[in-house]
Amino acid sequence: MAGSGGAVGGQGAGAGQGAALPASRAPLLLVVLVLGAYCLRALPSRCPPAARAPGPAPTPAETSSSVRRPGATDLPVAIGPGRRRFPQALIVGVKKGGTRALLEFLRLHPDVRALGSEPHFFDRCYERGLAWYRSLMPRTLDGQITMEKTPSYFVTREAPRRIHAMSPDTKLIVVVRNPVTRAISDYAQTLSKTPGLPSFRALAFRHGLGPVDTAWSAVRIGLYAQHLDNWLRYFPLSHFLFVSGERLVSDPAGEVGRVQDFLGLKRVVTDKHFYFNVTKGFPCLQKAQGSRRPRCLGKSKGRPHPRVAQAVVRRLQDFYRPFNHKFYQMTGQDFGWD
């Protein structure tokens, strides 16, 4: 957004020619209105309703006994139909990386119970309290793992501290994708909701092809190394699993297998559960027993990307390269984006 602001200021300074002023600013007014609509789309949504009225806030002893390391043998024993627990594992990022696909794939596992919607507790709804958060969770039985996914956690500065306060044993899953492709996908999603949005190039750079505008969230999210630096202040690297968004498409069973290992689960979800949908360009789930059709993600997944000039793509690739290399070093994984 900073790039757009600079353009407005520059034209305003050079315009001041009596009666011609209002006409010269008319296009600028249109841009401001469109950008305003874009920003409103990005405002936080309402917090989800609780599954039931929250009970008393959990005591420290209850918190420590109900949040355990996934896969450990001392998971809390359920009483009756199970009970609501804090998540032992979170998918914390990143937006447009493949988090929804991963969550849906994991929900095939009988020992994974996951909240379907994004609660946004650790970024937008934290003031509601831990009792409210726990009330959102599905009931789990002995040996089952509770999960939720909210991709914006990874880029929220307060999230790691808040999650650590809930449980320092929380396991954290981050789905990452080539930051250039991710940014274009992010833009495509916003464009589908806000027709008339300025071009990708106009938002990604200041003053034409000037400096990359890191104030734009679509660009800023892809600075993975910077975001991970913040998380490593609270959690050791061993608490993270970094999933390749590209391999989640090309080899979903392999990536989901890594996640199952990380969570201490038996590899129940395998290649027999997937097939590649050529139309969507995305893996889908095989038809479940008793179902009439295979299950694919919604229409918004796998949507076509707008065409972006190669000069713009190359500029962004050059911009992200040093951040990508640092991220490879921090995680010990080369994702092959460069």
Describe, in plain words, how this protein is organized in 3D.
InterPro entries: NST/OST, P-loop_NTPase, Sulfotransferase_dom. 3'-phosphoadenylyl sulfate binds at residues 96-100, 177, 185, 301-305. The protein has 338 residues and is α/β, with parallel strands linked by helices. The chain has one domain (82-331): 3-Layer(aba) Sandwich (Rossmann fold). It has 13 helices and nine strands. The strands form three sheets. Strands 3-5-2-6-7 form a five-stranded parallel beta sheet. Helix 1 (2-15) runs antiparallel to helix 2 (21-41) and helix 10 packs parallel to helix 13 (310-331). The longest helix has 22 residues, at 310-331. The radius of gyration is 22 Å and the shape is globular. The two termini are 27 Å apart.
Give a summary of the structure in a few sentences.
It contains 13 helices and nine strands. It is an alpha/beta fold and 338 residues long.
